[in-house]
């Protein structure tokens, strides 16, 4: 019998072992009793959302989810030969004048040292901070050309500079490249995101930073996470948690590992990873790290916010809503992209908890800012919210929200 066909009988067995009638179970899950009955009889398929909730309520530790969610092919998390590297392929496609080539040319041919980069670096550093702020309120496709140009420009300055100036220029170029990769992912281009992330690691290594390459693993894990590859996400995140790495990188990696575990309902390992992330990110070393700050600068307690995120994937929407309510209130008003990212997850948690009207109020406000900050990753939660709300078609709030939802999601189907 296929995994999908085994779901119904297994759900019935676990429900009965828990001493629950179908009526009691449907009330607890906020799902229609008739729908659950058809699922148990194999007449209807269970959605991943339903599987998560059943799994969490019956403490099945991912057993029911695995019968519904098809395991993704595990990402290749080992280093590949240069001719096969997805990063190098990405570079050829993304970089018309690769920054790596500029650096190699400058170092190998021994360009005449120039002090030109020295007075310009503070200006480029200010531009980097401004572009990060703009990323919170501007469409990624608008910023990408400028980010690509700035990355190449700073890398070019490094190639034509004395060693004293070259190192900080390379490190700044690496941060430009890393942020460019994030904007590429937000624009829906995972291949370009990986290419720029690899470029960032190469620039950092050339500048003497042995750590950003490990953070690149965390960024790669985000690509696999949004691709639904839980095993690949966990494997990549674990590679970025060796003891010699800075606490902030290890903490961010532990958060990503937790999200990977949550995708398959592994609550025990998820919570362990979150505890590890909290400990690392709260350490004095993590708080006094190098500038610019690696990772988010707008979430005051990343471990707490990620806990709320993971609780939703673990099928515990009420607990998720409580955490996300608290943490979202702490986000700065100008951080529109961050507010949308966690706000839609918050709306999803409230909808899954049966608080449909409240979910619609949250979503309506956020949908108004989405044209300014379109995001392929945020859209994944908007689609989940639309599916969740489709169970409540009789709700006037849901009907009123549908046109706005459709307008935001329409471009993704075009």
UniProtKB/TrEMBL annotation:
| PROSITE patterns xref list | HTH_CROC1
Keyword line: DNA-binding
Q: Which GO molecular function entries does the Swiss-Prot or TrEMBL record give?
A: DNA binding
Task: Describe the location of the HTH cro/C1-type domain by residue ranges.
Answer: 11-53
- CDD domains assigned to the protein according to its UniProt record, in alphabetical order: HTH_XRE
InterPro entries reported in the protein's UniProt record: Cro/C1-type_HTH, Lambda_DNA-bd_dom_sf, TPR-like_helical_dom_sf
- Name under which the protein is recorded: DNA-binding protein
Organism annotation: Streptomyces caeruleatus
């Amino acid at each position: 019998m296929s995994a999908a066909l085994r779901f119904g009988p297994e759900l019935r067995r676990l429900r009965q072992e828990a001493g629950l009638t179908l009526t009691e179970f449907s009330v607890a899950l906020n799902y229609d009793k008739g729908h659950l009955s058809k699922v148990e009889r194999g007449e209807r398929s269970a959605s991943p959302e339903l599987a998560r909730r059943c799994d969490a309520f019956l403490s099945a530790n991912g057993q029911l989810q695995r019968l519904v969610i098809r395991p993704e092919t595990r990402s290749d998390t080992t280093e590949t030969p240069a001719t096969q590297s997805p990063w190098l392929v990405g570079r050829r496609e993304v970089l018309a004048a690769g920054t790596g080539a500029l650096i190699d040319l400058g170092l190998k041919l021994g360009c005449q040292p120039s002090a030109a980069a020295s007075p310009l670096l503070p200006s480029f550093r200010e531009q980097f901070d401004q572009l990060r702020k703009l990323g919170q309120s501007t469409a990624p496709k608008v910023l990408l050309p400028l980010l690509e140009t700035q990355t190449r420009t700073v890398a070019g300055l490094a190639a034509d500079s004395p060693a004293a100036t070259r190192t900080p220029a390379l490190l700044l170029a690496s941060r430009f490249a890393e942020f460019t990769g994030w904007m590429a992912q937000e624009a829906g281009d995972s291949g370009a995101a990986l290419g720029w992330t690899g470029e960032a690691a190469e620039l950092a290594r050339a500048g003497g930073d042995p750590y950003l390459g490990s953070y690149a693993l965390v960024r790669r894990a985000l690509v696999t996470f949004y691709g639904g590859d839980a095993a690949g996400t966990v494997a990549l995140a674990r590679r970025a948690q060796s003891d010699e790495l800075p606490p902030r990188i290890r903490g961010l990696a532990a958060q990503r590992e937790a999200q990977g575990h949550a995708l398959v309902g592994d609550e025990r390992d998820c919570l362990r990873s979150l505890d590890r992330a909290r400990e690392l990110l709260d350490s004095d070393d993590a708080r006094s790290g190098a500038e610019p700050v690696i990772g988010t600068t707008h979430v005051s307690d990343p471990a707490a916010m990620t806990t709320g995120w993971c609780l939703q994937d673990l099928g515990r929407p009420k607990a998720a809503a409580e955490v996300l309510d608290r943490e979202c209130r702490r986000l700065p008003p100008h951080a529109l992209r961050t507010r949308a990212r966690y706000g839609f997850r918050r709306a999803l948690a409230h909808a899954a908890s049966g608080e449909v009207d409240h979910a619609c109020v949250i979503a309506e406000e956020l949908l108004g800012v989405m044209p300014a900050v379109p995001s392929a990753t945020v859209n994944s939660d908007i689609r989940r919210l639309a599916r969740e709300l489709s169970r409540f078609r009789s709700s006037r709030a849901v009907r009123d929200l549908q046109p706005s939802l459709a307008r935001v999601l329409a471009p993704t189907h075009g």
